[in-house]
Amino acid sequence: MAKDRVSIIVFSGELDKCLAAFIIGTGAAASGMEVDMFFTFWGLSALRKKGVKVKGKSLIEKMFGMMLPKGADNLALSKMNMLGIGTNMMKDVMKKKKVASLPELIDIAIQLGVNLYACEMSMNVMGLKKEELIDGLKGVVGVATYLENASKAQITLFI
């Protein structure tokens, strides 16, 4: 019998929304479900590595690279960010209450076997290269792969 399956599209690059996606994803994986997370457009920011520079980019691709948050630790809250004060307050409260940070949740997801996919089309549009993304990705795939995975899932979410 096939495992129950969850498919999550992560479109947002905001801290609170990415936290929700990974809490659901890791919770489902810990419950024995197969989990696919498909990161597209701004959601790709959560998967970026810090400090990686790739040569040969166009001016527009370089501009996207400068404007997008560089990794899970640099995402801001969707509301009450207040020039970063709200985001830092949230991270401090989470740490005091021993809630896993987004980078920790990403590591946990990888350890639990959550399938992390980056959207090939979004990466092309934004000029992101695979080497700029974290290790542990299942792959860089197109919408056909997402649709195939989602068609097998009992739960699909768009975050």
Beta content comes to: 15-25%
SSE order: EHEHHHEHEHE
Residue share in helices?
A: 25-40%
Sheet with the most strands: spatial strand order: 4-3-2-1-5
Query: What form results from the Cα inertia axes?
Result: globular
Q: Please tell me the overall pLDDT.
A: 94
- Runs in which pLDDT lies below 50 for 5 or more consecutive residues are none
* Rg measurement, Å: 16 Å
Secondary structure tally: strands? 5
For the structure shown, list the relevant keywords.
15% strand; alpha/beta; 6 helices; five-stranded parallel sheet; globular
Could you describe the 3D structure shown?
The protein is of the alpha/beta class and 159 residues long. The protein contains six helices and five strands, in the order βαβαααβαβαβ. The protein has helices at 15-30, 59-67, 85-96, 102-111, 120-126, 143-151, and strands spanning 5-10, 34-39, 115-119, 139-141, 155-158. The protein has a five-stranded parallel β-sheet, with helices on both faces. Strand 3 (115-119), helix 5 (120-126) and strand 4 form a beta-alpha-beta unit. The radius of gyration is 16 Å and the shape is globular. The mean pLDDT is 94.
